[in-house]
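hi!! sorry for the late reply, been swamped w classes. u asked for the two structures so here they r. pasted raw, havent cleaned anything up. first the sequence of the first protein and right below it the tokens
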Amino acid sequence: MVQLFDLFGKKDKEHKSQIDELQRQIDQLSAENQKLKIKLDKKDEKTRDALTRKQEVEEILNHTQKQITTLENELSALKEEASKNITFSGTYLLNKKSFEEIVLELGSVRSQSKNLHSIYFNMNARRSDFDFGDFIDENCIYMFDQIKSNHGKVLFYDENHCISLAIVPPFRIKRSDWITGDLLDTDPLKAMLTCEPVICVVHAHAGSTVVGIVGKDDVRAEIVRTGVQAKHTKGGWSQRRFERGRDQDIEYHIKKVQEKLQSMLGGVDGVDRPNIDMIIAGGDLRLARAMLADMSDKVPVIEKRVDVEGNPGDIAVKVAWAGRLYRL
């Protein structure tokens, strides 16, 4: 009986020893597990911080790329003007408010000698279409002729040289004309302020394009964002691989913008198609042309060498109503 008791007692001690050892291992593994969990949490936090930083850097790069595109466009225009010895006294970007105020001011000008000239060029007009003779200074006409606009321009001039300025209006000039009298003819510009068009706006930039609809009392605008790599400056195979990847990114961005345009204008999302009077493109015009390649033959497209900032709605309105004033 004593031997049996010793046998069970020995077994109990062995089991207890095994249990203690297993518990020790469990405690050790739990401690290691806790350490690993802390390391993993720190790694996850670093990953989140890295992703946040990556997004911030990408936004900075996109913003910088927009500024570079704007400066490249402006530099191209300045080079073109410089090559022709063009020097304007001043050029000023117009918004809807400033355009309206200038039209009202010009409409208030009077001349007893009836020597005020209002000359409207539509998109097809040429300098050779008019014989200005000695009525208007030759240098003024030359400067006016150098202003590039695919939707028309207007020259206001008086023979006493008090007024000599040109305006590229926000919308198309319908017909060419030359009016002389005791006041400046601003009626075509006033009509633009009251015509209440419905405008589709595309403010194009690689990776971040604003698409919007601007009406009389309603503005709908969205940003189409995709990942587009910033420009690469290294040479060799690395640059070529990078450029191929960037080209693919840009093609994908163009496709997404076209899908958004189809959604906004084609009614594929169940919304009735807006009655669009025109499309106005700004920003990177080469990119905008690619985005609008399938639409330019259906709706009139106005290109404006203008780059603006703000929220999507502000950008859409600014591009829609952007004009320019030149002092000759």
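now the second protein. again sequence first, tokens right under
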Amino acid sequence: MHAVCRVGFIRFVFPISFFVLITFQPPASAKYKYFRSGNAADIETKPRAGFALMGGGAHQEQAWKFLCERANGGDFLILRANTEDDYAKQINEETLKICPLNSAATIVFDDRDGSDDPKIAEIIAHAESIFFAGGDQSNYIRFWQDTPIQDALNKHIAAGKTIGGSSAGLAILGEFSFSSMIDTIHSPDALADPYGNKITLSREFLKIPLLAGTITDTHFVKRDRLGRTLVFMARILNDGWAKKVRAIAVEENAAVLLDANGTASIVGGPAYFYESSENPEVCKHKVPLTFKNVFVHLAPAGTSFDLKKWTAEKGENYALNVENGKISAGSSRKGVY
């Protein structure tokens, strides 16, 4: 007898007897659940540092393999909010089938309560690779900001271990984040009112040196998010958070696989790299945005980009302007994407 399991981005058929689940029981008052498959005892390996910036969608096999292979046979940890228990159990099992690991585990958070539980920080400390799932990024900021979890995650990064995220999980990887505290924001609304109450930005949640001065966005072309990304950049400059701002926007089913040396490999679809050091001409409440001379590099799948130099040998370079809330590209471009 076999079961068919499709968990987000992987479809795999495996015997029912394969499921082996080890579950740590948190205190009854805890607002999280912990599921672990594989070996009950942690082992220590030497992981390879790297970052997976995943644009969301159902097909992220290459990025997932990147994350688990860099754990080098160690312990893989998934952090997520509000999901079904069976989903958490199944994704652990699928991860163990993709590459050799000592264990794959998931912590599911329902609230901020429990974020100071030392057991969670200990689990994070023992993980060689960490993945932030999709969903609602405001939950991650609300649940973990200014808690021992935030400290443990930044220690993980500083130790040269692997980390990545998809969709909402990507949204929290940069120095700057669209935190979505009230609701999401769509490009036309953002361009028309750069200081609308749905445009909530946060900063310095995670400290990834290669993503300093950078904000990320996801499901990019699929959901037409260019306008809002440009508004995020304009706001960061206008509010004095940075003198130069960068953005990495990843299309659905695509990923930017970033090595510790700054080389980013683009898989599955295009990614866009934006940069600006010119303050917006007009960035006010209830006034359409005017923001000019934003450098863009379009990196198709199969190409690479150097984050340290912010250049690439292949792909396409152009500039964008926003005037009175309308985006335009250079004359050599057919469109803004």
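hope this helps!! also noticed smth abt the second:
The longest strand covers residues 287-299.
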